[in-house]
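Format notes (please read before filing issues)

Several people have asked whether sequences and structure tokens are stored in separate files. They are not. Every record keeps both together, in the order shown below: the sequence lines, then the token lines. Line labels are part of the format and must not be stripped during preprocessing.
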Amino acid sequence: MSISFEHVSHVYSAGTPYEYKALDDVSVTIEEGKITAVIGQTGSGKSTLVQHLNALLLPSEGTICILDRTIKAGEKPKKLKSLRKDVGLVFQFPEYQLFEETVIKDVAFGPKNFGATEEEAMAKAREALTLVGLGQDTFEKSPLELSGGQKRRAAIAGILAMNPSVLVLDEPTAGLDPLGTIQMMELFHSLNKKYQKTILIVTHDMEQVFSHCDNVVVVENGKIRMHAPVSEFFRDSSLCREMNILPPALIRMKDLLVQYGFEVPQEVQDIDGLAKVIARQVKHHG
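Then the structure lines:
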């Protein structure tokens, strides 16, 4: 079953002088079991879009179908608690999610809230914290004592502990160092491939999109400008440049080689393949 938005609009502060339409007649279908990147410039409506997936925001107009639920504008959502268990949302700012006395209590809160015993919740919390790379030395610390990167890991662990079917991540690697970013993206990739979790990632990092995502949704001025497989999206880097988004290094290298007269097949999608193309053409013309 897919996740679909059907003619969805969202208006902030409706009926006031501050009224603002953040989403405007959005229709898009997200493929289950895939990793989908949601990209666009700041203020385009990306975060507003994904916050509808667990009814944190409700549509002003239109309908959202997710898993076995339907959310319609003007109607109170049903099975809201179970929806928020099945669709885990990690905010862009982890401070919004961390509130308990200790890290492990914070991560255990979700499972306990959904019926797990104290022992079960703590076991799930320890497993999730280990999964995101936080050691036992952090378990009894206050979340306020953690570094920015550790707070982000703890916030992600708090969602993973509930074992959601759909994982929605708003800039999940912001504040992480390069190694931490790689490790976190590999974790999401593993969750998708090993456990078939549907993952949506709001990000500005095109390297992450190119390396780990299956599909791309481009949001612009509250509308869906493009929805395509990653390979199709990066076939022409002009869209990225038009949106002031830096294309992945491999795509930039391919563009540069084409400018200098090399023939680079579209199917070349990694550095080894690119190196072989260059070597063959240099040898041929050498």
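For reference, the curators noted about this record: The chain has eleven helices and ten strands. Strands lie at 3-12, 20-30, 35-39, 61-66, 69-72, 87-90, 166-170, 198-202, 215-220, 223-229.
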